[in-house]
Amino acid sequence: MQETPTSAFRTEFVEVTDRYFDALADCVESVRPGVEYYGRDEAAFCRELARARRLESDCDDLLATIRTTVGQSMGPNFTRVYFQPGGVLELFACADETANHAETFLGELAAMEPTLSAAATADFARMGDLVVEAVGVLSAAVDDLSAAPAHRAVDAVHDARDTIADLESRCDTVGRKLVSEAFATDDTAAALVVRELALWLDRAMDAVEDAAEQAVYLDSTAVATSETAGPD
Q: Using one digit for the tens of pLDDT, what is the confidence trace for 121-164?
């Protein structure tokens, strides 16, 4: 059966967004090995930093492709939610900040050269892991948004937002512990560096949460537009 313009766009959109979220997750996944190699294996750390920078650039390139795809190929009948191209692009603009902040975290770690305790290293790695997990949840939510209405899970996007909010809270808890211990055990200057580094990972998680909130907005407005949508 020949593809309709709507199904053809869906195929194109899902392919590029899957590539985008793969690159985003891979970029954030550099945080754990990067911080674990830091201070122990300079060459390996530099490789992770270079990898994060390359993947952050890949995310930028894929975001540009998404913008072109949405701007030029999105038909007026595409799956309820996509009556708002601007809202879709806002979601990806939020998500893209995650890659920027993860790459900046490793870059600032290299530039400031702090001495990290084993506990601080573990906490930074844990924060990175939580961001990676949140990116995976967001990716699944976007897949649901782009699915044909008959294949969409009820409340999946809202459930994803709630899961990401929980992950953000857990990331905040780890970050607060990390910073509190730094000020309790290090001199003020060293503790301030730890706090600044923790903020970059906190911002990375906040960006995922912002994207999830945008997904919920798109999902909720889709309900209002579904009655006027043409056949899928």
A: 999 999 999 999 999 999 999 988 876 554 455 578 999 999 99
Inter-CA distances, 47 with 38, 72, 171, Å: 11, 37, 26
Tokens representing residue 232 in the block: 């899928």
Distance CA 110, CA 106 (A): 6
Number of H helices, E strands in the chain: 7, 0
Dist CA 34 CA 61 (whole Å): 23
Centre a 10 Å sphere on the Cβ of residue 99 and count the other Cβ atoms it contains. 29
Q: Do residues 135 and 25 touch, judged by C-beta distance below 8 A?
A: yes
Q: What distances in angstroms separate CA 218 from CA 80, 159, 164, 193, one per listed residue?
A: 9, 14, 17, 38
Q: What is the DSSP letter of 186?
A: S
- The residue type found at 124 is F
Task: Please tell me the distance from the alpha carbon of residue 5 to that of residue 33, in angstroms, as a whole number.
Answer: 43
Provide the phi-psi class of 97: left if phi over 0, else alpha when psi is between -120 and 50, else beta: alpha
Distance CA 22, CA 81 (A): 23
pLDDT 10s digits, 48-61: 999 999 999 999 99
For residue 114, CA distances in Å to 111, 130, 176 come to 9, 23, 18
Q: 5-227 maps to which CATH number? A: 1.20.58.220
Q: Where are the domains of the chain?
A: 5-227
